[in-house]
Design goal:
By secondary structure, the chain is an alpha/beta fold. The protein is built from 10 helices and 12 strands. It starts with a strand and ends with a helix. The structure holds 2'-monophosphoadenosine-5'-diphosphate.
């Protein structure tokens, strides 16, 4: 096997995806490459033509093109269709099929550390309602949980996620203020916005004053590895889950689409932490 892979997005110069996929290829003992196709918005069409000419076996799509890529695809997996965003494309006989591995990668990364969390009596709170929240909400309502609430600065935006709700799940939409006050009733809190990301490392989305000890607090931001939000959670007796694990597991699932192989990711995690 000789895999030709890549990533399209903007900006992506500092992406760790080439390194991660190289580790997967090395582990599997296959030849291949994973190149960056950085494309400013005005060059998107051109870059996509380039991807076709290169006859890549597959590629990843990141910000800001996870939705914009859809018109260029020949087929869409049902999950990606429902989420309305694609982060992985597989090429077969010249046809492009789009998938979304973000939500499933996120769930997988949490399960690695907290397998017992996924139980019907555990209440979940998602903070944020953007593209990332959409994939994570969809993945979580398909797990064992029966309450998955959403708090967002703009309440109407949170309502948009309800089209992904499953029958057996209850979802309340909350303001950040209400969420702060009700915090002690949650067992799992997921921060899905970019608040706290470098360079604004002091920013924290909500106060964790009412956090119950042993609540699992997760942040998808991975630069810095330990956000102010997670630091605060730790100090209050929370158990933390860090965002770089999601990066790794969405990549593992993308790589499985391309190679057919499920390459262990746990060994790569320590090295990834050093690089961040
Ligand atoms: P992504 O695709 O990365 O999730 P997005 O779709 O732009 O990005 O969504 C950003 C999310 O972060 C939204 O939930 C947004 O809140 P609004 O819907 O109210 O805009 C949230 N967000 C971004 N900056 C924020 C801030 N400073 N305070 C609170 N929420 C913020």
């Amino acid at each position: 096997m000789d895999l030709k892979l890549g990533l399209i997005g903007y900006p992506i110069k500092h992406s760790l995806s080439p390194w991660i996929h190289q580790q997967f290829m090395d582990t599997l003992g296959v030849e291949g490459r994973y190149d960056l196709y950085e494309s400013p918005p005005e060059q998107l069409g051109e870059t996509i033509n380039q991807l076709r000419d290169q006859q890549l076996d597959g590629f990843n799509i990141t910000v800001p093109y996870k939705q914009k890529i859809i018109p260029y695809l020949d087929e869409l997996d049902s999950d990606a269709k429902e989420i309305g965003a694609v982060n992985t494309v597989v090429q077969t006989n010249g046809k492009w099929k789009g998938y979304n591995t973000d939500g499933a990668g996120y769930v997988r990364s949490v399960k690695q550390s907290y397998p017992n969390l996924f139980a019907p009596n555990h209440r979940v709170l998602i903070l944020g309602a953007g593209g990332a929240a959409r994939g994570i909400y969809r993945a979580l309502v398909h797990e064992a949980f029966t309450t998955v609430d959403i708090a967002n600065r703009t309440l109407e935006r949170a309502d948009d996620l309800l089209d992904l709700k499953t029958e057996d799940v209850t979802t309340n939409i909350l303001s950040f203020k209400d969420a702060e006050q009700a915090l002690s009733k949650y067992d799992f809190i997921v921060q899905t916005t970019s608040v706290g990301m470098k360079p604004n490392v002091e920013d924290q989305i909500i106060s964790l004053e009412q956090l119950k000890p042993n609540t699992i607090v997760s942040d998808i931001v991975y630069q810095p590895l330990l956000t102010s939000f997670l630091k605060d959670a730790k100090q209050r007796g929370g158990l933390i889950h860090q965002g770089h694990t999601m990066l790794l597991y969405q990549a593992q699932l993308a790589f499985r689409h391309w190679s057919g192989a499920s390459v262990p990711a746990q060994d790569i995690l320590i090295e990834l932490e050093k690089r961040l």
